[in-house]
């Protein structure tokens, strides 16, 4: 880790002063974010399985299927984000 003594940018708009710190984003490509969301949907699906009978009695089985759909869409999203990351890395390599 490199320690720097950079001061944040100052922007004055009207009578307010805003400080903008030079911070890099943590997850530019979104892969980790989509993976976490997919994992949470999977956890919710598994957590609801023991209650299937009660969900069916109360006509709330859509909760279970929504979680399953979230897992499926999340898996598609992970693949999409990985491909996007790969393409961005290739483009960055071409620019150099």
Q: Explain this structure to me?
A:
By secondary structure, the protein is mainly α. The protein has one domain (27-95). The chain is built from 3 helices and 2 strands, in the order ββααα. The protein has helices at residues 31-48, 52-57, 62-95; strands at 9-13, 16-20. It has a two-stranded antiparallel sheet. The chain is elongated and about 60 Å long. The mean pLDDT is 89.
Helix content: 55-70%
Return the domain count.
1
Poorly predicted regions are: none
* Percent range for β-strand residues: 5-15%
Class by helix and strand content?
A: mainly alpha
SSE ordering: EEHHH
Q: Which shape, going by the Cα principal axes?
A: elongated
Question: Numbering strands along the chain, what is their spatial order in the largest sheet?
Answer: 1-2
The largest sheet, given as strand count, sense and whether it forms a barrel, is:
2 strands, antiparallel
Number of helices: 3
Rg from C-alpha positions?
22 Å
Number of strands: 2
Overall average residue pLDDT: 89
CA-CA gap between termini: 25 Å
């Amino acid at each position: 880790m490199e320690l720097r003594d950079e001061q944040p940018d100052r922007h004055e708009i009207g009578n307010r002063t805003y400080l903008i710190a030079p911070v890099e984003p943590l997850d530019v490509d979104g892969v980790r974010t989509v993976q976490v969301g997919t994992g949470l949907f999977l956890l919710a699906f598994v957590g609801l399985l023991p209650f299937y009978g009660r969900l069916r009695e109360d006509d709330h089985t859509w909760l279970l299927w929504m979680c399953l759909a979230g897992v499926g869409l999340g898996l598609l999203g992970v693949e999409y984000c990985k491909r996007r990351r790969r393409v961005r890395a290739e483009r960055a390599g071409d620019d150099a």
